[in-house]
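Agenda item 2: iron/sulfur cluster complex prediction
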Amino acid sequence: MGKTIAEKIIEQHLLSGEMKTGEEIGLRIDQTLTQDATGTMAYLEFESMGVDQVRTERSVAYIDHNTLQSGFENADDHRYIQSVAAKHGIWFSRPGNGICHQLQYERIGKPGKTLIGSDSHTPTGGGLGMLAMGAGGMDVAVAMGGGAYYIPMPRLIRVNLKNRLGDNVSAKDVILEVLRQLSVKGGVGAIVEYGGEGIQSLSVPERCTITNMGAELGATTSIFPSDEETRKFLKAQNREEDWIPLSSDEDAVYAEEYTIDLSELKPLAACPHSPDNVKPVDELKKIKVDQIAIGSCTNSSYADMLKVARMLKGKKIADGVSLGISPGSRQVLSMLAECGALTDMIDAGARILECTCGPCIGMGFSPNSGGVSLRTFNRNFLGRSGTKDGQVYLVSPETAAASALSGYITDPTTLESVGKVEIPEQFRINDSGFIPPLPPEEAKDAEVLRGPNIKPFPETHPLENEIQAEVLLKVGDNITTDHIMPAGAKVLPYRSNIPKISTFCFGVVDETFPERAKAAGKGIIVGGSNYGQGSSREHAALAPLYLGIRAVIVKSFARIHMANLVNAGILPLVFEDPADYDRIRQGDVLTLSDIFEGLKENRVILHAGEKEIPLRMELAERQKEMLLAGGLLKYAAATGKQR
Ligand code: MIC
Ligand code: SF4
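Presented output:
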């Protein structure tokens, strides 16, 4: 039987398990990445493992999220990450060098390799033909130490692309269409592979827009073949030797198949507050826009920026609009400067922001109250922009630029075509933003620099046979990690300070939660389906852990968040009958007894007063051992195994 692209890469990296859908497999990891907001924790965890030098082919620590530095906290964290990276064989990417995913595919990623990153948009690398996945910081720490990365073997979804995109229609519209069809849950437990003759017309950066936002499908990852387009891109980055051909076999078998005719696509927008709330831009044209942000790891490539510059050239943005543009990397910014496109943007009235995540994670440039903000980003969850009632629409760079000119949401196909932007023959290469690690002999004596904002890892608890606790919070479906552990300029500086950051836990849902939880000392959270979707931030598990949460009971979990709960020693449980969700109220005292017996069958009975409710566990044997030990770090210390 023929193989899919993902199966070929998995087979070559398989350390344990069988490639049967749903069964746990362990993978050898070639490359890792961290960013600063998740990196401090990941490196503290890595240090606790006592490994001198990373055992991957390449590990990179990027600084791109927490770059505001409105106090000592972020600067201290950057200094800590730089020093810990130098000591342990990890490359360091300076603040200002660019956004991790953009840089990774420009300068580091290689087709056919495995990559995990402590960021949910790590699948961006799939546009280059990598098997690239988002993971919790602890899992990345383990992979840096040479340990396997474990996932349930995904099912394979194939998306066939036909024909070519029309004028001013964009790769972003392709992924918005996939989201419209599949929803934010449609990719859970799956890898999405793209194929068909339509892919030939998509450049690597365009493919990376699609794989990047595949994270919003809940997918484990997304991947494109590595073909002549890939070779062309790597050659223009002076890295042709990193190219290998990679494609699926003719008779490869997929669990689901979809076809999208690129020539029929129209500009689309994801409306507030979910990336799958997709509507044609044409239907939104009466909406007045306050703010526009162009950039993020989804749409900040040179080609994206050039299209925007072409649309803005010689024109002026509408008076009521504030336009912020953040190029994805120093390479993109310097090329825009060199060709004059930057001047076209500035002259049209754009504010040029740093080459960082910036507004995407509420690090400045928040909209006015109730303001409509059009963003070329990937997430529009409630409150993520930093303005709780901000109305964020996710659109293509073309739609963003067209709307900046008119002041209303505008269909860019009604304007003159910006034409196709081809990959340049040669990108501008300047790797001075990457700092290599110290040679191992020098590294031994190198000091790791820690600031006062770095607090110890919270205490975890070995799983007990009985948990009796109150439901401290009951939430609905599609709760994101932005609900659980909000980000933004006020909160992000405390990513290495769990006691402090936990005071913001569930802030957008119920501001009283942290105090109530702390007072109760022990508690349970109840949630709906797709609980924990979105970011990979393990803080969404570590803050509840610190606040005393022992179990989370939901209709279904998002993959990375469930792994993070187990790593933190919190018991994740799923209603056998989703209707039982309605039988529990916030404030109920619940008892889970005979948990050890239950672990054997992955099943436990919940007692809520007179009611008995059957719950399922979706735990691999390894995860059960981890819970019994009190989380991954304790498990690793006790067993001497990294996993
Ligand atoms: C995000 O886009 O939500 C983030 C910020 O990049 C997160 C990581 C984090 O919370 O630090 C992610 O996607 O994993
Ligand atoms: Fe940064 Fe936004 Fe991408 Fe997350 S989604 S990595 S915050 S640009």
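Discussion summary: The mean pLDDT is 97.
Owner for follow-up: CH.
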